[in-house]
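User: Please predict the structure of the protein below. I'd like the answer in C-alpha cell form so I can feed it into my own downstream comparison script.

Assistant: Understood. Taking the following sequence of 700 residues as input:
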Amino acid sequence: MNRRERLMATLRGEPVDRPPVSFYEITGLEETGGDDPFNIYSHPSWAPLIKLAAEKTDRIARCKIPLTGGPRDPWDEFSQIESWQQDGSLFTRRTVKIGRRELTAVTRRDPDVNTVWDVEPLLKNPADLKALLELPPAEYGGQPEIAPFLEIEKQVGDSGIVMIDTPDPLCLAAILFEMGEFTIAAMTERKLFHQLMERFAALLHPKTQAVAQALPGRHWRIYGPEYASPPFLPPRLFREYVVGYVTPMVNAIHKEGGFARIHSHGNLKDILDDIVATGCMGLDPVEPPPQGDVELSYVREKYGQQLVLFGNLEASDITNLPTPEFEHKVRRAIREGTAGAGRGFVLMPSGAPYGRKLPPLALANYQKMVEICEQTNMRMNKLASSNCRFADSQRRNIMKFPYLETSSFTAYIADNAPLGIHRRGYNGLAALIPRHSGNNLFVPTYAGLNYETISLAAMPAYRYEPRKEEHQSIFEPRCEPMHIESADTKQVVLVQPETAHAGVSARITFRVAEPHYLHQRIELTFHHRFCAPGEPNHFSSLWASYMHMPPDVHIYLKPDWQAGDNLAGWLGVVKADHRAPVQFCPLPDGELDAGAHLEAMKGQTPLSMPQLLDGPLAFYYGFCHGSQLLLKMFKQPEQFKLAYSPCGGGTEPAWSPAWDYVLHLDDAQLGQVYTWDLCLVVKEYRGRADILDEVRRYME
C-alpha cells in the first residue's frame, strides 16, 4: 500500500496497513531557497524535516482554488492597499472608504515568524459593520483555476494527496473583527451578522460546488467553525452560524465524491453533535485538554463511525517535550485513535513550529512520529503474513455495528442499544453511506428501516416504566430488549424476543446484493390477543427512516404503476408540517432530469387523496443526496401502507423528513409467522422509466 492509497483508504473508511502520519503544515513541498526574508524555511535547520516529510510521511498538501474571469469585487472599487517595511517587518494597510466613513485594517509580518499578525481590524464596532453592508454585494462568477492544484498533485504523486483548503462564511466574517468585538457582534447583532455571512455564503456556496465539480473526489478542509465554539460563543450559536452555512458546502463536496473535513481547534465536547450534523466525514485536530476539552478516545468511541479523526498531538509538545515523553503521547494517540469501531485515523499535530530556526528537539520528535508509525506497520504486516485477510477480518471483528457492503454503499446495522451518537431505541440501519460521498443518508442519531411501533386491536397502552402511569407509549419495539443474532459478510439478523406487553416476537434479516440493493425481510409472530373472541385481531406497525436533510423532502409514487403510460400519473407526497394531513401533487408528464425533478413540486396545488394512505403500497422514492435516488420497493403491496413526515427527523438546521411505511394485517393469527419483504435501492437518478424497471424486476 503506497502513501496515496493509504490516505484514500482511510478517507473511505477502508482497512489500511498502518495509520497514516502527516506533519500537517509541513509536506516536503516547502521552498527552501530564494532570498525572501520572510520565508523561514530557507534556514538550513528546516532541511532535514522537509526531507523527512517528503520521503516518509503520508503527505496531505494544501491548496486554495481561486476563481478567474469573474466580475470585479465591488470592495476593490472602494479600497486602497499600501505596504511598507519598518524595523524589518512588512506592514500592509487596507483602507475602505464608504461615504464619509473610512475603515482601515493593518497587518504585520515578521521575518522570523511564519504568521501574519492583525494589528488593526477592519471592523471595530456595529456601526462599522452597518457601513460595510452599505457596499453593493459581490456577484459570483468565474471559473475555478485548477492548473496549480493539478501540478501539485503531479508533484506529490503516490506519496500523498492534495487537499482543497477553504474558509467557511463564518471565518470570512469573523476575521474582519478583533476577537472580542466579534463575539459581541455575533451575540448582540445577530441580524446584521447574518447579513454579512449571507454575502459570503452567496459566493462560497456556488464556488464550492464549481470547484467540487472541477476536482471531484478530492479531500477538503473547511476552516472557520472554531470561531463559534465555546467559550467564544454558546453551542446554540454554533448551530446558527456554522451548521446552517457549512452543511451546503459539505453536501456539494460529497455529491461529487469528495471528502469534507471540519477544522476546529479548542473545545469540542458541546458541539460534536452539531459538527456531525453537517454531514462531514472528518475532524481535526481534536486537541486534548487543556487546549481542548475532550480526549481522543471519547470522540473515537462516540463519533468515530462517521468521522475520520486527524490529530491529536499538540504542536507545542513537538518543540517542548523531551522525546521519551513525546513518544508516550504519540503511542497514546495511535492507541486511542484506532481503538474499537471507527472510520479512520491520521496521526497529525495541531500545527507546526513557526520560528525561523527549527530546534533539534522538534526534529527528533517528528522523527519519532514516523518511527512509531512504521513500527505499527511492521507489527501489522507480521500479523498479516499469517493471515492475508487480517485487516478486513479484524475490522469486522472489532466493529460494534456489524455492516454489509456493496460496490455502491456500506450499511451499518444496529439494535436498539445506544452507541456513540446513535440513540437508545433506534434500530435497523444506523448508517447507510454511499461510496461516492461518505455522508450518512440517515440522521446520525436515529436510523433507517427502524422498527418503531406495535398496535393490536383492543391492546391497552404500553408503559415503558410500569410504576409511572403517565409514561405510556406505542413505541414498544424501541424499549424492549433486542440483539444481533448473527452477522457475516452476507447478512445480519436482528432479533427481538417476545415483547413483554404486546407479545410480538421479531426476526429482521438484512442482506445486500450488487450493485446497489439492500433487502430487508421482516418476520413477526404474535403470541397474545387483546380483542374479544371472534373479533378480527387487527395489527399495524410503523417502520421509520429518518433522512438526513435531503435536497428534497418529498417522496414520489405512481399508484397505477402496472398500467398506463410510464411517465403519467406520478404524484409527490406533501405535508405542511409533521401534524398536517398528507396531500399529493401531480408531477408533470414526460421525463424529467434530476434538476427539473427537484423543481417540479414548486407551484403545484396539493390534492387530498386519502385512499392512497390505505394501500396497497408497491414503491416510492425520493432524492437523498444531490441527484442520488433512494427507492423502496415492497414485495407484498397489500400488506404495506404509506407513512410520511416532512420533518420527522428534525427541523434544524434544515428539515429531515421521515420516509416511512406501515405493516398491517386484518386479522393476525397466534403462533403463525408473518413475512414482509422490501428492497432499498441507492443509485443515481436516471428517470422514472428506470425506476419502474427496477420495480418490475423486483416484483417478478
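That's the full C-alpha cell string. The first helix runs from residue 3 to 12.
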